[in-house]
Write a structure and sequence with these properties.
By secondary structure, the chain is an all-alpha fold. It has one domain: Four Helix Bundle (Hemerythrin (Met), subunit A). The protein is built from eight helices and two strands. The chain has helices spanning 26-46, 51-63, 65-70, 74-98, 102-126, 131-158, 179-191, 196-222, and strands at residues 5-6, 160-161. The chain starts with a strand and ends with a helix.
Amino acid sequence: MPHAVKRDNLINRLAPDSQGNAIMLDARIRPYIDRPLALAAERLVAGKISANAVTLAGFCVGLAAVPAIAAGAYPLALTLILINRLSDGLDGAVARLTGKTDLGGYLDIVCDFIFYSAIIFGFALASPGNSLPAAFLIFSFMGTGASFLTFAIMAEKRGITTDIRGSKSLYYLGGLTEGTETIALFVAICLWPEYFPVLAWAFGALCWITTLSRVIAAWRTFGQTD
C-alpha cells in the first residue's frame, strides 16, 4: 500500500459512516472551533505556556469533578468538565503553533481516557444504583478505546493518515460515540443525574456499535493487504 495515503472516504460503505462524515459531530464542528482555539492558543504561546502544561492542568481540573459528582455538586462538576474539555482543545492548538511532539500526543490520549472513565466512576460513587450501569459504560469505553488505539497503530504502520478532525498525533477513526457525543453525555448526566442509569446503558450500547464498526473498518482496510 502506498505511504501517506489519505483514507478519509475509505469506510463510506459502513452504515453509519465510521469516519463520522455523515452524522457524527467531531468533524462537523471543526470549522467552527479551530479559529477561536487558535486565537486563544496564540495568547498561551505568548505567555510561554506549553501544550503539555495545558494538557496536565486540564487533566487535574477534570479529575476534580469526580469528588464533586460524588458529593452531588453537579453544577460544579459540569463546570470542571467543560474546563477540561476546553483545555483538551487548547493543548492541540498550542502544539500546532509550537510543534507537535510524541510526548504531547501520548499525554493527551492517556489523560483523555482516564478522564472519561473517572467521570463515570464519580457517578458510581454518587449513588449505589449507578454502580452497575457505570461499570457497563466503563466496560464499553474499553471497547471503543481499544478499537481506536489499535486501528491508529496499524494505520501508522501503513502510513495511512487523516486530517478530517484536524491535525492529530495519530489516526482518528470515527464512530457513533466520539468526543463531542461523550461531552454531550457528560452534560446530560450532570444536568439530569437521576437519568444516569438509562443514559449510561444507552450510551454504552452505542459504544459497542462504534466498536463493531471500527472492527469492520479494520477488516476492510488492513485485510486488503494481509
